[in-house]
C-alpha cells in the first residue's frame, strides 16, 4: 500500500511494525557515516528515508521503497521510513541543469523558465500553482453559489471585440482568424440569451509589445458578466464578496504555501473596508503621495492612473484605510472601450480593482442599447459595418448588464509577493519566449 508523505506520521502512530510503500523523486541524499538518509519527494511533501547501506542514486531519480514508519520529530513531517527494500524505477541523468533542491531565491528568472520542467519540481516554485489552483476553485465555487453559470467561449474569433488592434492572426483553412483578446462578446451574448449571470475561466491573448514584470501575451482571465444591474457599484459589491471568499479559501487550504513565500492574504474585514474612489480622486491621492514621499524634491505630476499611480494609491489605502485593496471608478470615456456605459458626458460606469499596487481587475456596466452603441462608434474611430457581429447581440432586446475580469496570474503574483508575473505562469509567453 502506497502511503503519501503527509500521511506517514499517521501510519507511524497507528502501527510502526506495518510495512508500507512510498515512491517519488530523490530530493536529497545524505551520508552520515554508517547511516544514510534519502529525502523522498512526492506531491504532498517530503519523507525521510533511513538506510543502512549507501544507495547508488542520482538526484531526481524516481524510486519505490518499502519499510516501517517510525516517529521522529526531527524528520520532515514528524516521521521517517526505515527502508527494507529500494527499487529504482527510472534513474535521472546526473547532469542536472537546474538544482531542484536549491534555494530558488538565488536563481535568476530566466534560468528558472529555461529549465521549467525541472524548476517546477522545486517545492517552493510548485507551491505557486497550488495557490493558483485554489484561486480558480474558489472563484468558481463562489460564483456558482451566487447562481452564476459557467461557460466556455471560442478562442478563435473573426476580429476585435474591444476596438483594439492587439490581436494575433492565425491561419484558418483558407482565411485569417484571430486569437481572442477577451471573451467579452460571448459573455454579453450569454447574458442576452437569458442565463443572466455567467462566468468563464480561460486563456486570452494580447499582441501588445510589452516587456514588463506585469504583462504576459497569454494569460488566464477570470471573467464575470451579470445582467440587470444598475451601475458598476453592483459589480464592485460582487467582487468584494468574491475576493473575500478567495482569500479565505487560500488562507485555509494553502497555509504552508503562503508560509513558503512569507506571504499572507487580506482578512475579510479588510476586503470589506476597501474604499471606492473616483478616477480624479485617485489622481489627487497619487500626486499627494508622490509629494509626501519626495520630501524636498518636487515630483513630476501624474496625469493618469498609471502603474506608478496604482502603487501610490495602494500605499495610501494601506496607511489610511487599513486595506490593500482599492476600487477606482468613474474612468473618463477616453480611457475605456466603446461599449462602456456613460455615467455622464465625461465619465463612465467603469472601475479598476487595485491590489497591493497593481491593477488586477477591469470592469464596468456595458452599453445595452443598439442605437446608442452604433451612434458612439465614430467617437472611437470605429465603423458599424466592421462591428456587425458584435452589434447584432443587441438588436433583439438586451438587459442592463456589466462584468469584470481578473487576471489570474496577477492575482497570484500579488498574493505571494512575486517580483514578476511570469513566475505565476506555468509556461509563460512573451515577445521572446515561446517554449517550453
Question: Can you characterise this structure?
Answer:
The protein is an alpha+beta fold. 31% of the residues lie in helices and 25% in strands. A hairpin with a 2-residue loop joins β14 and β15. The longest helix has 23 residues. It is elongated and about 85 Å long. The chain starts with 7 loop residues before the first helix and ends in a 20-residue tail after the last helix. The mean pLDDT is 95.
Keywords:
single chain, about 425 residues, alpha+beta, 5-stranded mixed β-barrel, elongated
The largest sheet is:
8 strands, mixed
On the 0 to 100 scale, the average pLDDT is 95
Outline the low-pLDDT stretches: none
Helix run count: 13
Strand order of the largest sheet: 6-10-11-16-15-14-13-12
Using DSSP, what is the number of strands?
16
| Termini separation | 35 Å
Give the assembly state of these chains. Answer: single chain
Structural class: alpha+beta
Task: Estimate percent helicity.
Answer: 25-40%
**What order do the SSEs take from the amino end to the carboxyl end, as H and E?**
HEEEEEHHHEEEEHEEHHHEHHEEEHHEH
Shape: elongated
Which percent band covers the strand fraction?
A: 25-35%
Compute the gyration radius: what is it?
26 Å
How are the secondary structure elements laid out?
Blueprint: H1 8-14, E1 20-31, E2 36-42, E3 45-51, E4 62-71, E5 79-90, H2 109-114, H3 116-119, H4 123-145, E6 149-150, E7 156-157, E8 168-172, E9 175-179, H5 184-195, E10 197-205, E11 218-227, H6 232-253, H7 255-260, H8 268-272, E12 276-278, H9 279-294, H10 307-320, E13 325-329, E14 350-355, E15 358-365, H11 370-376, H12 388-391, E16 401-407, H13 408-416
Parallel strand pairs: 3-5, 6-10, 12-13
Antiparallel strand pairs: 1-2, 1-4, 2-3, 4-5, 7-9, 8-9, 10-11, 11-16, 13-14, 14-15, 15-16
Helix pairs in contact: 4-6, 4-13, 9-10
Amino acid at each position: 500500500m502506497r502511503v503519501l508523505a503527509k500521511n506517514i506520521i499517521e501510519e507511524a502512530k497507528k502501527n510502526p511494525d506495518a510495512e508500507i510503500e512510498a515512491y517519488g523523486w530523490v530530493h536529497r541524499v545524505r551520508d552520515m557515516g554508517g547511516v544514510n538518509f534519502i529525502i523522498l519527494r512526492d506531491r504532498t511533501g517530503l519523507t525521510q528515508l533511513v538506510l543502512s547501506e549507501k544507495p547508488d542514486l542520482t538526484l531526481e531519480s524516481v524510486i519505490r521503497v518499502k519499510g516501517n514508519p517510525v516517529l521522529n520529530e526531527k524528520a520532515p513531517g514528524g516521521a521517517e521510513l526505515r527502508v527494507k527494500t529500494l527499487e529504482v524505477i527510472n534513474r535521472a541523468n546526473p547532469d542536472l541543469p537546474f538544482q531542484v533542491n536549491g534555494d530558488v531565491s538565488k536563481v535568476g528568472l530566466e534560468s528558472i523558465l529555461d529549465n521549467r520542467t525541472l524548476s517546477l519540481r522545486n517545492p517552493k516554485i510548485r507551491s505557486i500553482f497550488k495557490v493558483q489552483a485554489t484561486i480558480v476553485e474558489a472563484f468558481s465555487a463562489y460564483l456558482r453559489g451566487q447562481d452564476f453559470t459557467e461557460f466556455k467561449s471560442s478562442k478563435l474569433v473573426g476580429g476585435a471585440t474591444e476596438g483594439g488592434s492587439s490581436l494575433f492572426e492565425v491561419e484558418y483553412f483558407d482565411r485569417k482568424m484571430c486569437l481572442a483578446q477577451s471573451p467579452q462578446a460571448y459573455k454579453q451574448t450569454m447574458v442576452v440569451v437569458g442565463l443572466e449571470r455567467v462566468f468563464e475561466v480561460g486563456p486570452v491573448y494580447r499582441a501588445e509589445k510589452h516587456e514588463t514584470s506585469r504583462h504576459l501575451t497569454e494569460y488566464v482571465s477570470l471573467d464575470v458578466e451579470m445582467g440587470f444591474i444598475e451601475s458598476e457599484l453592483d459589480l464592485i459589491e460582487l467582487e468584494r464578496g468574491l475576493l473575500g471568499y478567495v482569500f479565505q479559501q487560500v488562507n485555509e487550504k494553502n497555509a504552508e504555501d503562503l508560509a513558503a513565500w512569507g506571504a499572507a492574504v487580506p482578512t475579510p474585514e479588510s476586503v470589506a473596508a476597501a474604499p471606492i474612489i473616483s478616477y480624479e480622486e485617485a489622481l489627487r491621492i497619487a500626486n499627494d503621495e508622490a509629494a509626501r514621499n519626495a520630501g524636498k524634491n518636487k515630483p513630476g505630476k501624474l496625469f493618469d492612473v498609471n502603474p506608478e499611480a496604482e502603487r501610490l494609491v495602494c500605499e495610501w489605502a494601506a496607511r489610511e484605510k487599513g486595506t490593500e485593496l482599492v476600487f477606482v471608478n468613474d474612468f473618463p470615456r477616453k480611457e475605456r472601450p466603446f461599449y462602456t456605459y456613460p455615467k455622464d458626458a465625461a465619465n463612465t460606469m467603469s472601475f479598476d480593482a487595485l491590489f497591493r499596487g497593481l491593477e488586477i481587475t477591469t470592469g464596468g456596466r456595458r452599453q445595452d442599447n443598439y442605437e446608442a452603441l452604433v451612434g458612439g462608434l465614430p467617437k472611437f474611430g470605429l465603423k458599424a459595418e466592421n462591428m456587425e457581429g458584435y452589434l447584432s447581440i443587441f438588436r433583439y432586446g438586451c438587459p442592463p448588464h456589466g462584468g469584470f475580469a481578473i487576471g489570474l496570474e496577477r492575482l497570484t503574483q500579488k498574493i505571494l509577493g512575486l517580483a514578476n508575473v511570469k513566475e505565476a505562469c506555468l509556461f509563460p509567453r512573451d515577445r521572446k519566449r515561446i517554449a517550453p
